[in-house]
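Support request, please re-run this one:
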Amino acid sequence: MKRHSQSRIVLSAVALALATLTGFARAADNPDLPKLVEGNSQFACDLYTKVAAGGDQNIFLSPYSISTALGMTYAGARGNTEKQMAATLHFDLPQDRLHAAFSSLGAALGVDTPPVGEGKPPSFQLVTANGLWKQKNVAFLDAFLAGAKKNYAAELRDADFKTAFEPARLAINDWVANQTLDKIKDLIAPGVLKPNTRMVLANAIYFKAAWQNPFGKAATQDGPFTLGDGKTVQTPLMREKKRLTYFEDDTLQAVQLPYVRDQLSMLVLVPRKPDGLPALEKQLSAKMFVDITAAAKLRLVDLTLPRFKTTAHFSLADTLAGMGMAEAFSDDANFSGMTGDQTLYISAVEHQAFVNVDEEGTEAAAATAGVMAGKGAPRPEDAVTVKVDRPFFFLVRHNATGAIVFMGRVTNPAAGTAAALAPATKRAQPIAIAGQADARAPGYIVLFENTVNAAAEVARLEKLYNFTHTHIYDMPGFKGFAGTIAPEAIKKLRWEMTIKSIEHDGTATINAAGAAAN
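Re-run finished. Output below.
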């Protein structure tokens, strides 16, 4: 019998500022690199679509960071868990070739810059690292640990989650904060690590670069930015006329801003209409970016772009499970490639990212960059106006490979920090559980509090947990629903809630816990 209550994996896709990694195989002509980048790009669009749905806040994340952390975990996945992860993450290469391609991508992104905080800040920094913390005295397969070191240059550390999980959490967070110059703080929240945690895997990336053609600070003026609902806010708008790679169609304008060294670029997609961002987001795909790149031309652009700064924190276990890899978070998880048995499951996937864009350039903890090839030089009088004064989408790509390092949207540049997007803020909250129901509906009766969309939540739980005999309540002072969940499904519900106790007389106490789990 599997004993998942004693075996948790926590994935922390984080942004870190470290010295450039060593230990990666060099990128040199790896034929699998384009396939990896294509799959990662499509996963980036799939994930972005999920986290962007149902909200209008600023968003910023690093698809590269998330894919890399999950890639390290995928190395230990077997059976149906492996199949589900491959389909969800668009890992279309065999295991050995996939991880070698990740190694090549890490090498391609690596640049020779001074360590963060030493001497005069360089005009371009892109540094990345992987970390792996395992429970001391717990045996992991040598092949898995060797692969993590060879393909991901993952630094291996021991931790005592069994008896000192809180000091372990603080130590990991301190490491993150120290390496990001305090850009990323408190990545792993209290309650995520528990005595049954067995491993924490983390990817980190830090990016800071000057624009190839900086904006003149004297030209920056406060101006109106139209929100999606038609209201306006005043915000600093940067302005510069420069030659940039440009694309347009009936629905959007796209402009690419290169950074110094021309290794990464920011691609900005601005819809024609102030309320056009949701429609644009529905079209996002890896192919869309390729098509825009192919059709783009070098133009003289009169560009207006807001200054903006955003920090976002995502708990992604719920999202990833809903995208198709639910088994990895359940009792059925098979990560025997890590330990030789099936006693591990993923309990949390935490991601935090930071970006700051101003006249001089971009600073980001968790990054991406992209480039479009210029096609022909127009006459100066052919200047096209691009005024980014409405909600827009942007990404940062690595020019040589096309890898998306960062992506996000700005719906309100005056808003500053994006709200944390934990699944518990978007889902029904389990608040009570009763014991066995009658013979017509064997199982546990669970009561959920929900103030958002009860019908949608019921449908989701029916699909994931065979939730039956449901009833929706809409009364003064309480909105929610109840239904019956089979005993075997209660364990699979662990990533939705923490069950403190279930008594023989059918009473229990539970706490909502977002992506954290027993």
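The chain has twelve helices and 22 strands. Residues 316 and 357 are 25 Å apart (CA to CA).
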